[in-house]
Write the C-alpha cells for this entry.
Amino acid sequence: MPKLILKSTSGLFAVILFASSGIAMAESPAVALEKKMDQAWEVAWGRFFHKDVETFMDYLSSYEAGKEQAHLPSAEEVKRQYPNPCGYSTGMEDGMILGGAMLSLLCDRFAVTGEEGLRNNSAQVFRGMRRCVTVHGVSGFVARNVCPDDGKSIYINSSRDQYTHFVHGLWKYYHSPLADEVTKVEIREILAAVADRMIEYVTPENDYDFCRADGKRGPLGICRMWNVQAHEAARLPMIYAVAWDTTGKENYRKLWRKYAAEAVAQSASPSKNNPAYALLQMQISLEVLYQLEPGQDLKEKISKVMKNVSTLAEHRLDHSTKRIAKKSAGEMEMLGPDWRQVKEWKSRGGYKNPQWGPYREIWHLTREAGESALIPLVMDKPSIDEVSKQQLGDLILQTDYLHNSSCGIIYHLAAYWKARRYKQL
C-alpha cells in the first residue's frame, strides 16, 4: 500500500503514514522543506535549463521528457523577429532575469552547504550569461536569451529588467568563493562593457534609452534608464556602481556618485500596486547601492527604502498565496501553450504579442509568490516575521514541483536558500 503524506499548513509539519505497517513516523519541518526543494532543484535544472545554450527558459509546454521546450522559437523565427522583437510569450523572454536570479541563489546555497558541485552549476550559468552578452557582437548589449536552435540568434529588444538581474547576479558571483580568478577577469570585462553602453546611449538625446541591439530606440520604453518610475530609479547608478566595484575605474565611480543620491530620493515612494518582479528588481538594485555606499546618511536612507519595499512584498506574498490556495491542483498543473497556436494576440507599440489565456495567471502566481517571499530576505541581516516564514514554508510544501510549468519555481528556491543562509527557516 502506498505511503500517505499529510501536511499541516499551520505547523509546517509533515507526517508520513506507512499504512502497510501501521507505523507513523514524524518528519521534521526542515527535512520536509529540504526534500521539496531538492525536487524543485531537479526540475529547474532538468526541465527549464537548456544545455545547448546554458540558459533557463520561461515555461514548459509538456511534462514529457525531451518535449518540455518544444514550443521554443526556431532560428528562422528569431532571425525575422517573430512574433516580436522582445520574444514576448515565446519562452525566451526572461533568460537573463532567470540567469541572474539563479547565480544569486547558487551563491546563497554555497554559503549554506559548501557543495563543490555548485562550482560547475555556477560556471554553466555564467557561460550562458556570457553568451547572451557576446554572441551577437554588440558590445555591452544583454540579450534576453539565445535561440537553442542555432546557438546564436537573439531577439534585438532587451529591457532594463534583464540588465538589472544580469548585473546583480554577476556582482554576487564575482564576490563569492564560486568564481575563480579567470572568471573574475571576464566578469570585469563584461560589466565594463555594459556600463560603457550606458555611457554611450543613455543620454538626454536618446531619452536615456540604452537602445536595441540594432542601435535604435524601442517603442515600449522598457530600455529607458533615467526619468523613470520609483521602482526603476536605482537601476542606472547600480550598474555604474558595480562597474566601479569590480574594475576600480574612476569614471564609473563618478557616474555612480552623480546619480546615487537622486536615485534613492526618487525610490522613496514605490507604488503599492507594483508587481513582485518590479519590487524585487528595485530591491536588488538598492542592495548594491546599500552595500557599496560609503556615506552613513545615504546608507540609512537606502535601508529605509528597502524596508518599505519589504513591507509591500509581505502584502504581495499574503495576496498571492491566498490566490494560489483558491486554485485546484489541476489548475496549478496547467501547461503553457505553443504560442503559435493561441487564439488571441495583442499589439503594443507595433509589437504583436500572443496571449496565453488562463495560463498566464497560473504562471504568474507561482512566480509572484516566490519573488514576494524573496524580497524581504534581500535586506542586510534580514529578519522575517513568523507569518512570512509560515507562508514561505507552506508555499514550498504545497507546490507540486513535478507538475508545475512556471519558471517561478526558481524564486521558490532563491527564497528558500536565502532564508537558510540567514537562518530564517
Observations:
- The beta strands are 4-8, 13-18, 23-27, 49-50, 55-56, 345-348, 351-354.
- The longest strand covers residues 13-18.
